[in-house]
Amino acid sequence: MNNIIYHITTKKEWQTALANGIYQATSLHTEGFIHCSTAQQVAGVLQRYFVGKTDLVKLTIDTLKLHSQFQYDFSSSVNEAFPHVYGAINLDAVIHVGLL
């Protein structure tokens, strides 16, 4: 599989990550992993979870640079496997930050 995955977050959460030197989504603490998407899944994720939200950024993550474990897990609600990062995301694994 391609080594590039994506994560949607807010500008504020990304600024916090830059200040802390590491990115940790709320889901890491509540679910044990950070939700990510493939390029083909980003549009659906935006439609399902981010409608009407502003100040969003899309993190482009190179999984070969991740220090934390990453794997694809099946989501029965949409019948697809999604990439999940099981730990914090080191900032040097984020190779691009794009505004949405």
TrEMBL record:
Domain of life where this protein originates: Bacteria
List the InterPro entries.
DUF952
**Gene3D superfamilies for this protein:** Protein of unknown function DUF952 (3.20.170.20)
Name it: DUF952 domain-containing protein
Species name for this entry?
Panacibacter ginsenosidivorans
Give the lineage. Bacteria, Pseudomonadati, Bacteroidota, Chitinophagia, Chitinophagales
